[in-house]
Specification:
Oligomer: single chain
Order of helices and strands: HHHHHH
Largest sheet: none
Structural class: mainly alpha
């Protein structure tokens, strides 16, 4: 009895896989099953002007070193020492925030989200101060 049940289950699974393989690609879309797949779409989307949206990595400044890094961390500490408690994280947040600033995103909300945490909320005034400090120390080109 067990052998018959196992054979029936395996046969059913094989039949289901075979049917799925035969119908994938054809479906109700009107495209034959053996037609080539449509060409992939680009990863950037056009803006209203028709130009592609830049990748965030293209908008991020290089990681600051030396005096520039020191100035950035000092500016963040002056706003709130918690913003620069973890220097590497602060630098990563600052670089991403520069991308938001230069990319035209909502810089205040973004700064509040990036530099805040569950235990430490960033006020709107602090977010504006962060953005101004970044424009002066890191987001310059």
């Amino acid at each position: 009895m067990r052998t018959h049940l196992t054979a029936a289950v395996l046969t059913g699974a094989a039949l289901l896989l075979a049917l799925t393989a035969c119908t994938s690609g054809g479906g109700d879309s009107g495209t034959p099953a053996d037609s080539p797949a449509p060409a992939p779409t680009p990863t950037t989307s056009p803006t209203a002007a028709g130009s592609p949206v830049p990748d965030i990595a293209d908008l991020m400044p290089d990681e600051p070193t030396g005096a520039r890094r020191t100035a950035l961390l000092a500016a963040l500490k002056a706003i709130d020492p918690a913003f620069a408690k973890d220097a590497d994280q602060a630098i990563a947040n600052a670089r991403e925030q520069c991308a938001t600033i230069s990319g035209g995103g909502n810089a205040v909300d973004s700064a509040r989200s990036r530099f805040g945490s569950g235990g430490h909320q960033v006020t709107e005034d602090q977010a504006e101060a962060i953005n101004e400090a970044l424009r002066k120390t890191l987001c310059t080109s």
